[in-house]
Amino acid sequence: MNIHERVSTGLGGFDRVIDSLRLGDNVVWQVDAVADYQKMAELFVRQAKQDRRKLIYFRFAAHEPILRDDPEITVYRVGADKGFEGFVAEVYSLVKKEGRKAFYVFDCLTDLLEYWHSDLMIENFFKVICPFLYELDTVAYFAIKRNIHTYSTIAGIRETTQLLLDLYRVGGKFYIHPLKVLKRYSPTMFFPHLIENEEAVSITSSAEAAELFSGISRGEERLDYWDVIFNRAKEAVHLATEQQEEIKKSLMTMLIGGKSRMFDLCDRYFTLNDILTIYSREVGTGFIGGKSVGMLLARKILEQDGENRFAPFLESHDSYYLGSDLFYTYLVQNGLWKLRMKQKTESGYFQYAPELKERLLHGRFSETIQEQFLQMLEHFGQSPIIVRSSSLLEDNFGNAFAGKYDSIFCVNQGTPEARYEAFEQAIRTVYASTMNEDALSYRISRGLSEKDEQMAILVQRVSGDYHRENYFPHIAGVGNSSNLYVWDKSVDMEAGMLRLVFGLGTRAVDRTVGDYVKIVCLDDPMRNPPADYEDLEKFSQHFVDVLSLEENTLTSRSLEEILSNDIHTDKELFAGPDYRAAARLRELGYTDRKAPHVLHFEKLLKSTDFPRVMKEILALLSDVYEYPVDIEFTANFRDDRHFRVNLLQCRPLQTKGLGQSVEFPILADEQDCFFATEGNFMGGNVHLPIDYVVYVQPKAYLNLSEQDKYMVARQIGTINASLKGKNAMLIGPGRWGTTTPSLGVPVHFSELCNMSVICEVASQQEGFLPELSYGSHFFQDLVETDIFYAAIFNGQKNVIFHPERILEKDNLFSAVLPQNGRFSDVIRIVRTDGMEIFSDIVTQRLLCR
């Protein structure tokens, strides 16, 4: 940087006062009126034109233009209404394009409040752009209005800029009072100066200075503009309904976002008081995010349209919201914005994500935010809490982002300092999850990579109770208003279904190892899916997810351990004796052992109002949304079997529906088909051509080391990319996407997202078992990506499977992956000749030939 090259302000006398400007200087003018700033900018530009400087004007405000149209000045009109990230990214990109030694004039920054409603975000913008301009040896003029911004905002700007100048107009005369001039000093520099023509006369006399400043109001400490707006709105609750509605809609654009289907639903159900209540629970500023909005809206719908029928069954929520602006502030204050801009480019999208993720995990929060976090934790006391992602795009129509971002349990035990540090780290972890590979791939696949994905956070008190040293709800799960898991003609798809577990709901949303959730069809809760007919105990839940107070972490306990203690309600609601296991124990001579439990939820589903209430909740929410919905919930029971449901989440559910009925071909011989089964598939009625089959051979896979099994998963990802745009079927042992390689191939969803069909093959000999995971995050990914799913229980009745149809064909593995041939005996890639797959939901027939 050339720190010796002098630059003129256009006022020769003032140049002598401050020893001129330097390349790299950012100059901030505090003014009472934009017209005063305009005068200083015109003088600066006039001199810069004489010096043949490259001049750029950033126009974004509603006030009168600072500079008149001039062919020697490049004007960039940037829309601040596109949001903080979009605006900053565009300005950043344009500055980068213009390069070194350009001279800039910006509109008054105070006008950005009209779009962002937050002083803090103006400070963040300045902290991003000012250092970048400094690096490029530019000179830039900015303005802020006096007595509007908070002291902390002014302090942040003062800390970042090279020059901060107070500009006054008193009695028709201009006075400039330098407050900061970096690396320059003179005995009179920081006195106020009267500007006469081009001269600057120092006001050194105490009498003159006192007279000048006696008429200038400095004001008191001010609230952030965000708080000013909401405080004004509190005074409107006594106004007529029509007047309240306009104010409410304005506040909703600040907390919820712009016009959308979700916005319209919120407008229909939320009152001004509701919006002010949300504001009272927000930390920071900005949007509260899709997950928070969905939860609050669903509760309001049940309250208002439920006509009090749900009130006895609903548990109140106790939530806080970390505004999306906190995420940007965290990036800026930890010096991560430049890296963020690199990652946002097409070439850097995946390249810089790991570095950004790592740095997001180790940032710091400002003292102001730390104090607000501390007050929130004091509110929750030692109750366990969960820190959940609530990004702008989550849980919206068309984009669920199911399971893409992290949610972190804080058991909240230990000293206040330890509890606070765990909470902060949970927030960092959620922020870092924006750089998860699956999340990035999902955004690309949904055409969202260019959209702002501000990360708000929902903090909820965990629903449940202490059961000795374990904390958990009695039951939890996922509910879908449309049931596509139909296995006979009598199932009513529109009655909905539940994916139910005992304990915390983590097992309901994820594909768990060695366990199966309870699938409940709400038209007939006692009807068991076909998978349960053979072995009720095998296809049930054996472990319970709990929060351990002793270990201060999320963990799993055996069902028998949990049920050996008092759970504050009737255990028979959820479990009963496993008579088959008891008989086996007697046969082995263990006559003194009690029969183990099996979770079947029979009394819950047969003798309580729980299934009826859940069915009615799902039906009402779906009717209002005019769209199928997906909810997450918990429920807790008393000794008298009365229960309360805690509605944790609600979002529009992507479904394919039945589709048109499919005409099946007639098979002369079962050898003519690749596979056929009854039931155990998801994806509606289909008739799909298959161009390629990718088959992972169970025995060969089983013989690999664990490290090689992970390498096979990465190879599947490469094959997935190479077959994009083709109709490909992926077949493998056990569960795709498991985290345990002994149970299946541990691919990420992004590594199979281009497949048209995926099949999971059961292999009793090798111990591989599929899981029909309807209602899980994995299922949501399949639906959104339009992937058909089938489980092939090889060896069972009514199941035909002829893998030799693939094994006898030429393996294209080496052609697709010429650099890596060592797994060609594990993975087969074959080109099919007219293969087709047929399915029918009502008859539950599936055929591939």
Automatic annotation (TrEMBL):
Annotated ranges, domain Pyruvate phosphate dikinase AMP/ATP-binding: 288-657
Looking up SUPFAM superfamilies in the UniProt record yields: Glutathione synthetase ATP-binding domain-like (SSF56059)
- The lineage's top-level taxon is Bacteria
Q: Does the keyword Transferase apply?
A: yes
Query: Recorded GO terms, molecular function?
Result: kinase activity
Q: Which UniProt keywords apply?
A: Kinase, Pyruvate, Transferase
Q: Does the keyword Disulfide bond apply?
A: no
In Swiss-Prot or TrEMBL terms, this protein is called Pyruvate kinase
- Protein species of origin: Caproiciproducens faecalis
Q: Recall the taxonomic lineage recorded for the source organism.
A: Bacteria, Bacillati, Bacillota, Clostridia, Eubacteriales
